[in-house]
Amino acid sequence: MPLLANHIAVVTGAGAGIGRAIAAGYAREGARVVVLDINMDAAAETAQQILNAGGKAESFALDVTKRNDCVAMAKQVADRVGAVSILVNNAGIVGRNGMTGADDAVIRDWENIIAVNLNGVFNVTHAFLPALRANKGRIVNIGSIQSFLHLRTPSSPAYTASKHGVLGFTRALAAELGKDGVRVNAIGPGFIETAINEKVRASNPELVKTFLSHTPLGRTGKPEDLVGPAIFLASDLAGYVTGAILMADGGYLTV
Q1: Cβ atoms < 10 Å from Cβ of 222
Q2: Where are the beta strands (DSSP E) in the chain?
Q3: Is 2 left (phi over 0), alpha (psi -120 to 50) or beta?
Q4: How many CA atoms lie within 13 A of 150 on its CB side?
Q5: Most buried among 71, 73, 84, 184, using CB within 10 Å?
Q6: Residue 164 pLDDT exceeds 70
Q7: Pairing mode, if any, of strands 32-37 and 245-248?
Q8: Domains of the chain listed by start with CATH number
Q9: What are phi and psi of 122, to 5 degrees?
Q10: Do 88 and 10 contact (CB within 8 A), yes or no?
């Protein structure tokens, strides 16, 4: 039997990259996937790819920074799709302005990144929490190697703070919701090739070399490298795993 049969899984930021890969992987394992993204066309494309492959999927537009919209979305999904038992908080953005940059850029980075990467995780989780508690659900948050350290090149204090926050939120929720049978874990990606960092990879090959020199596996990651960990943490295979972060960083944090 597929590992996620009879589950309804919500994946945020699933219009591309890691979110799209996880959504497709969940569908292959039997889950009915709710694809959420701020870009409705991208969400619909992901859902259509899943349907074309024989899976089950619905797509909706959602800005995770809007708390009331998240609450409305949880109700809409419950009414139109069913009871959610898996939530993947993947939606995220990056910014590369350090604290010594232009004031407007620094402030914009901080407000936007915290709004999406941290407040957005709270907003979506809080909105879907009643369903997850009722169904002894599973939450998978997308952290980062920057949940543990700050990468100086390029500087990104807002992103680092947001991903530290995601890990702290994961552990706090795991401790609080364990009594309800809800498991909460995170994945810590390393350097994953996505559209978000495409321009940086193209314009700054030395940055890529720096990452690779610190990565024992000697390669950058692909979105598909996150699928196995995401399936594991959402499945019964991880039935006694909560409050953990599963690193998918090519060994970056080991050296």
Answers
A1: 14
A2: 8-11, 32-37, 56-61, 86-89, 138-142, 183-189, 245-248
A3: beta
A4: 12
A5: 184
A6: yes
A7: unpaired
A8: 8-192+220-249 (3.40.50.720)
A9: -60, -50
A10: yes
What is d(CA 249, CA 93) in angstroms, rounded to the nearest whole number? Answer: 18
Both structure tokens of 97: 């302005």
Q: Would you state the pLDDT for residue 138?
A: 98
pLDDT at 177 (0 to 100):
98
Q: DSSP H helical segments within 86-189, as ranges? A: 103-113, 120-134, 157-177
C-alpha atoms less than 13 angstroms from C-alpha of 201 in its C-beta half-sphere: 12
What pLDDT score was predicted for residue 2? Answer: 98
| CA-closest candidate to residue 197, choices 241, 163, 154 | 154
Task: Calculate the alpha carbon distances from 208 to 96, 190, 196, 198 in Å.
Answer: 15, 12, 14, 11
Least confident of 64-73, 201-210, 235-244: 201-210
Burial bucket for residue 103 (CB in 10 Å: 0-12, 13-18, 19+)? exposed
Is-catalytic flag, 159?
Answer: yes
pTM equals 0.97
- Percent of the chain predicted with pLDDT > 90: 87
Catalytic residue among 26, 159, 240, 252: 159
Work out whether the CA dihedral 107, 168, 86, 244 comes out positive or negative.
positive
Mean pLDDT for the stretch of residues 193-213:
88
Which amino acid makes up residue 247? Answer: M
Q: Are 171 and 243 in contact (CB under 8 A)?
A: yes
Q: For 188-217, give one letter per residue: b (16+ CB within 10 A) or e.
A: bbbbbbbeebeeeeeeeeebbeebeebbee
